[in-house]
Amino acid sequence: MTRALAVELAPYGIRVNCICPGAVETPMLEREIRSSKDPEESRNEFIRAHPIGRLGRPEEIAQAALFLASDDSSFTTGSVLVVDGGFVARQASHRGA
Length: 97
Known about the structure:
It contains five helices and two strands; from the N terminus they run αβαααβα. By secondary structure, it is mainly alpha-helical.
């Protein structure tokens, strides 16, 4: 959808991009972790899923959004910015991609 909208809206000077975050330390994630049978293990599973070895911080996702909203990304449209501590890269390497 991002790419299709980017192509359709580019002639109007509208850029369309998306951010795909990994697990981020937010109240929503904390509720998810606390509701599990073993909250400590649940938190550790989330952390282990990210090769960078930690959860993301909300400000890291905000910085990506600020970049995409800024003039520094004026030639960027139709892009998918993955801000996930290596989660997708790990998944791709396990599939042999």
